[in-house]
Specification:
By secondary structure, this protein is an all-alpha fold. It has a domain of 102 residues: Serine Threonine Protein Phosphatase 5, Tetratricopeptide repeat (Alpha Horseshoe). The protein has eleven helices and no strands. This is Tetratricopeptide repeat protein. It comes from Flagellimonas sediminis. InterPro entries: PPR_rpt, TPR-like_helical_dom_sf, TPR_rpt.
């Protein structure tokens, strides 16, 4: 029992240190990767860079990890797509999506949603809408649905945008307290943007 408690305490301490000093986690992962250059260590390091907004470093490490048996690794490629999108390198994001879009996990992934936004930036409006609408499901994906409504506004489809926002607002009135708390900010934005469109 003491062993489990000690582990729990160590985890809490580690997450506190990471929250106070996020660069410590990166330094630790860099040391770990230098010591043992494994796929797992390189992707963990890339994930840390991505979380800290260090997109060029994340891209470099995700790309370097894609070799040997991991050349088509879904997780690493989907995170690479995210990093390219956040770095506003939409052409490369779209290029790497081609390697994973037939994977069943891609359809509802964050990379799929960002791919839709990348398509919009590169002029593929119809296909962009098709990918963004995948996330238009009741009582879920509130952030994605808010982005969908913004996309529709940019395409001058105001009534469709209002419909998406109205559904979100209606759902917020019937969701559990916990779910409402989790989505409070995005629901507030949906209400503000709905009012702005009326």
């Amino acid at each position: 029992m003491n062993v489990f408690q000690k582990r729990d305490i160590e985890k809490v301490q580690e997450s506190l240190v990471t929250a106070i000093n996020p660069s410590k986690k990166i330094k630790d992962l860099e040391r770990r990767f230098k010591f043992s250059e494994t796929f797992e260590n390189q992707v963990s390091l890339a994930d840390a860079y991505l979380n800290e907004g260090m997109y060029e470093e994340a891209i470099k490490n995700y790309r370097a990890s894609l070799k040997d048996v991991f050349v088509n690794d879904f997780y690493a490629i989907s995170k690479l797509v995210e990093a390219y999108c956040y770095a506003a390198d939409y052409d490369n994001a779209i290029h790497y999506v081609d390697k994973i879009k037939d994977n069943p996990s891609f359809r509802k992934s964050k990379a799929s949603f960002l791919y839709g936004l990348a398509l919009e930036k590169t002029g593929g409006i119809e296909l962009a809408e098709e990918y963004l609408r995948i996330f238009d499901a009741p009582y879920s994906n509130f952030n994605e649905r808010l982005e969908l409504s913004r996309f529709l506004v940019r395409q001058n489809k105001i009534e469709e945008a209002k419909e998406v926002l109205q559904e979100m607002i209606s759902e917020s009135e019937h969701m559990s307290r916990q779910s409402f708390r989790t989505n409070r900010e995005v629901i507030k934005k949906a209400k503000e943007e709905f009012v702005a469109l009326t």
